[in-house]
């Protein structure tokens, strides 16, 4: 391993310039320009297959772009050790199996143990790496996410909604500068979804320096604390900027290819199709 990497707070948290990703001869995304500042809370929206997860994988330092340059926390991908950079990045993605959930279930690991694995960024616990400070921190994070009473509960018996919040607590364990949430509400029922959104909003208010990027399919899942939005379509950025300018009926209609009307009630967004 090289020199220890620290986030460079002088510039942007994320800066993608002309980024493209090609897999098996096919461009999944291209010409992506995106700059996100520290402390901003972004939502990424777009139809199925628009390239949201692919773009996120570059921004979260999971993969290198095929073309263009990506700076993450001030460091250029390709010039830094991605694993070290990922130590400053929290990732919450139910689909990506960041925790070996099958193993956790088998070993009856508790919610507290799952959060602890966030300290080492491992799928399974590395017990000799967790001291009293880490144990205490895992308890505090569970409390912050409204899961105080779940600490000793086996993760395997926790509901999907509880797991979603435990995953966020796990992502915060390494004290990341940026957290990516890829469809964090997928599969949750209404109360569980609302609990998660409230937890994410509280987090944003309690940690002004934290940057978050959330991918979702549903406008009603966008936290009220969101400051910026980026719309994707067919592998390209359609528009990006302050939420007030981007989350409009006109832009969403163009993004999703049908006439849509958008309402905002008490900070949250609601969308519906217009009859034509
Ligand atoms: N490894 C891969 N090899 C080939 N094609 C891929 C690969 N990964 C993704 N794709 C394709 O790239 C396109 C963009 O995928 P991506 O998952 O980034 O979209 P998305 O906007 O996140 O979609 P969704 O909303 O459905 O999750 C899709 O057409 C997908 O089939």
TrEMBL record:
Q: Which domain of life is it from?
A: Bacteria
Q: Which residues form the ABC transporter domain?
A: 14-259
Checking SUPFAM superfamilies in the record gives:
P-loop containing nucleoside triphosphate hydrolases
The record's keywords, sorted A to Z, are:
ATP-binding, Nucleotide-binding, Translocase, Transport
Q: What's the name of the protein? A: ABC transporter ATP-binding protein
- Per the UniProt record, the source organism is Spongiactinospora rosea
Gene3D superfamilies per the UniProt record, alphabetical: P-loop containing nucleotide triphosphate hydrolases
Chain coiled-coil ranges? none
GO MF annotation: an example: ATP binding
Q: Which PROSITE patterns match?
A: ABC_TRANSPORTER_1 (PS00211), ABC_TRANSPORTER_2 (PS50893)
């Amino acid at each position: 391993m090289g020199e220890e990497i620290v986030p460079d707070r002088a510039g942007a948290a994320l800066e993608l310039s002309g980024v493209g990703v090609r897999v098996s001869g096919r461009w999944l995304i291209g010409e992506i320009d995106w700059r996100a500042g520290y402390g901003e809370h972004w939502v990424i929206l777009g139809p199925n297959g628009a390239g949201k997860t692919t773009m996120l994988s570059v921004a979260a330092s999971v993969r290198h772009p095929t073309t263009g340059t990506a700076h993450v926390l001030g460091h250029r991908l390709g010039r830094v050790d991605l694993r070290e950079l990922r130590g400053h990045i929290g990732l919450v993605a139910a689909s990506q199996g960041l925790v070996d959930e099958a193993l956790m279930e088998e070993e009856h690991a508790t919610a507290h143990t799952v959060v602890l694995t966030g300290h080492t960024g491992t799928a399974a616990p590395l017990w000799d790496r967790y001291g009293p400070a880490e144990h205490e921190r895992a308890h505090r994070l569970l409390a912050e996410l409204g899961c105080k009473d779940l600490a000793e509960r086996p993760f395997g018996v926790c509901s999907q909604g509880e797991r979603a919040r435990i995953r966020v607590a796990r992502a915060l364990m390494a004290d990341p500068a940026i957290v990516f949430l890829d469809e964090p509400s997928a599969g949750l029922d209404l109360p569980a979804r609302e609990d998660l959104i409230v937890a994410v909003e509280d987090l944003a208010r309690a940690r002004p320096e934290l940057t978050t990027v959330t991918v979702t399919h549903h406008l009603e899942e966008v936290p009220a604390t969101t400051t910026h939005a980026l719309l994707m379509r067919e592998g390209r950025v359609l528009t990006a900027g302050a939420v007030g300018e981007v989350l409009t009926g006109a832009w969403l209609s163009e993004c999703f290819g049908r006439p849509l009307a958008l309402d905002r009630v008490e900070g949250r967004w609601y969308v519906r199709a217009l009859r034509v």
